[in-house]
Amino acid sequence: MLLNVIARGPEAAESADSARPPIVLLHGLFGRARNLGFFQRRLARTRRTLAIDLRNHGDSPHGPMDYNTMAADLLETLAHHAALPATLVGHSMGGKVAMTLALTRPGMVHSLLVADIPPARTGHGQFSLGEHMLRIVFPSYLNRAEADALLKPDIPNADVRALMLQNIRLGENPGWIIGLRDIVDSMTNIESWPYIPEGYSYPGPTLFLAGANSPYIRHEHYGVMRRLFPNYRLELIEKAGHWLHVENPTRFAALLEDFTETY
């Protein structure tokens, strides 16, 4: 499946560092490529960048989801855009997609940044959220303020709700833009971790970023992180939970830029 891509690079061709691999940005569950625009624009001052809508998200096609399938989507899309090998940057679900590709096709991944997700089964209420979203009854017309009020009971965090609002078609005949039915039907796969054969690992530079207030990356994950990603390091982002790039964008950007400039 070819995925929707937002491509950015330096405005002046002579500013591009063509010797460096492209940087690929992958959003999390219920996100979309343009959510990462702030970081993409910063990176694109000197580097070729591609922000991608994963399947069932943004403007990409819909269909059943599991991490091997989504990694195959990503590989096909990057090959189509002559963007391999690449530096992969993924948040949450996007981080699992990036890790899966790195472990199964390590030669296609130059370096890897994973934001607030371990290589393990996770799940903190997203299935319930998806079910609640499916049950929302849309009126015949909806503006942004009304959509915000519609989501508020299930998504009290205003920053997260603002991201989710981008998944709603406003105006006449409002509804979900994303493949919400496919997402909910695939939630067990999304919250899981794919089978990785014994002996598989990714030897390249790997940075895990964890929100200091997030429940996702825990001490019990460190062993599997070291086994699968032997050259990893972990950085905590203070004053942030799972949506660390939204809650502390300054620190997230600094760590992201330092990593992509180094590797």
Automatic annotation (TrEMBL):
Superkingdom assignment: Bacteria
What is the protein name for this chain? Answer: Alpha/beta fold hydrolase
Q: Where is the AB hydrolase-1 domain?
A: 21-249
Check the record and name the PANTHER family matching this protein.
PROTEIN ABHD11
The record ties this protein, via InterPro entries, to: AB_hydrolase_1 (IPR000073), AB_hydrolase_fold (IPR029058), Epox_hydrolase-like (IPR000639)
Tell me yes or no: is Hydrolase among this UniProt entry's keywords.
Answer: yes
Species per Swiss-Prot/TrEMBL record: Gluconacetobacter tumulisoli
User: Coiled coil where?
Assistant: none
State if Cell membrane is listed as a keyword: no
What Gene Ontology molecular function terms does this protein carry?
Answer: carboxylic ester hydrolase activity
Keywords, A to Z, come to: Hydrolase
